[in-house]
């Protein structure tokens, strides 16, 4: 039984093929620069225990052609013989609004509902829809399942997801906190429960997905009750190029004083702020290198980044009352020992005590890095959003046809 996971961008398709019997990935890849010059297809797979990597330059005119290339490869590598061999195709969809709180089997009505969410995620949902439509046309008869980034956070209580704005904005325009990175937060929460050998519905966790985009979630009895990102992925933590939390009056101030348009401010806050706005670099590795060389703006950027995370750890500890584990994941969360140490420094008052040596010497996919006397476990868990999407898609399909 195999599930193909697709994550479609406006000019790209990321994919992963999973054998659901073993829960292992068979092929992963990405097709980039669709309908542009310099298109590429990069993929990797295991053959006789050896990892094989390939990168091919080619012209890809549209997403349906990209899917044809993917399925031709899967057939040539003998992972599938024909499209209909697939159990289903799981699609990452960024925004499901309040409508979708579970993975959902896609039909024409569901596709129209997803299109209604475009105003809430104008940069992401249109690209996801392009991938869905291409897959439905190319792989007719194969069940298609939408897995939403926002779904995991739909368990938030109203006092956590509502903003203190006119209620008609919420009722008529959907202005509320939705949260994102839900598949990642869900995956690492389940992995933490398995490691701690306790049912997820008995655990209180704080999960930190730290990458170029970053968010945290407060998870009570296995369910998200608060998260840092809001109606859009702009709110919350300081990120690679996003500002995170911001006084909204700043937008009006910049419009008045600099004459900036809404689009110019939106572009600045999403693409030229965060780490990049403070020190000129959004790659955390480059920021560290600059800071080590004495760059004061890079040092400031690191201090700001870790400070805001620490504030949210305190806030979410207060909300949860009891925290069983603090979980770091994402590219930065999994690989930046210095940042993890900064985020946990002087938090013994909250029961968090990091072991410096364990923090530097991680295991493969899951490491416990707290001191033995720490009241709160501190875990580093490698996220696997593609596997989570595959698992949720398979579960959705079984429920639909049971």
What's this entry about, in short?
It contains 15 helices and 14 strands. With 402 residues, it is of the alpha/beta class. 43% of the residues are buried.
Question: Care to describe what's here?
Answer:
The protein is α/β, with parallel strands linked by helices and 402 residues long. The protein folds into two domains: 2-148, Nucleotidyltransferase, domain 5; 198-385, Nucleotidyltransferase, domain 5 (2-Layer Sandwich), CATH 3.30.420. The chain contains 15 helices and 14 strands. The strands form two sheets. Strands 5-4-3-2-1-6-8-7 form an eight-stranded mixed β-sheet, sandwiched between helices. Strands 11-10-9-12-14-13 form a six-stranded mixed β-sheet, with helices on both faces. β10 and β11 form a beta hairpin. The longest helix has 25 residues, at 296-320. The relative contact order is 0.11.
